[in-house]
Write a structure and sequence with these properties.
With 201 residues, the chain is mainly α. It has helices spanning 42-56, 59-78, 91-152, 157-174, 183-200. α1 packs across α3 (91-152). The longest helix has 62 residues, at 91-152.
Length: 201
């Protein structure tokens, strides 16, 4: 008899790292990784950058920046020596303006990227609506063409009138007196004659 094999035996992982690494479960989501950098909402940050970019592109920002620079220069030129915080070459003012420009440029680019994404979505929606309207127009054109073809086979009033005139001419040519009496006229004449007979009585 052959020896019975154990069916319940578990496989033991081989290798140096197999014993130290925990087995990942596929039926559960992975735990979130710890991030070193702080997290932020990209949508809220994008809205804030658009607000700042809109403000930077207004005349109000230019006026306020001009007022601040003029006050800065006037204070550092005419104020007493001990109250001045940025002497003549105005290095600190240059640093502040370059810092403002270095932050303004990426914010404006981010706002432009978001606007480009919105424009792309709007163009896609416009393209789809144009395709739908073109398809509807083509469908209506085919339907109108089919109606015209169908109406070409329908008898119109002018055609019936011309056919009746042709029939009347044929009947006049066939009648020896040249005057045709139609059944409707015959019934009217018989009614008139019966009415005269009644009056005579």
């Amino acid at each position: 008899m052959a020896p019975e094999r154990e069916t319940t035996r578990e496989r033991t992982p081989a290798g140096a790292t197999a014993t130290t690494r925990p087995r990942a479960r596929l039926d559960q989501p992975r735990p979130p990784r710890r991030r070193i950098l702080p997290e932020w909402d990209p949508e809220a940050f994008g809205r804030l950058s658009e607000r700042i970019a809109r403000f930077l592109g207004t005349g109000r920002f230019i006026v306020w920046m001009t007022v601040v620079i003029i006050l800065w220069v006037v204070w550092n030129v005419s104020a007493p020596e001990r109250l001045r915080f940025d002497n003549y070459p105005f290095i600190f003012l240059t640093l502040m303006l370059s810092l403002q420009a270095s932050y303004a440029a990426p914010l404006i680019l981010l706002a432009q990227n978001r606007q480009a994404d919105r424009d792309r979505v709007n163009l896609e929606q416009d393209r789809k609506s144009n395709e739908r309207s073109i398809a509807d127009t083509e469908y209506l054109t085919r339907e109108i063409a089919a109606l015209r073809l169908g109406l070409g086979e329908v008898a119109t009033r002018d055609w019936i009138r011309s056919e009746l005139q042709d029939v009347v001419k044929e009947l006049e040519e066939q009648h020896p007196n040249g005057h045709v009496v139609f059944p409707a006229e015959r019934s009217e004449r018989s009614e008139r004659s019966s009415a005269r007979d009644v009056d005579d009585r």
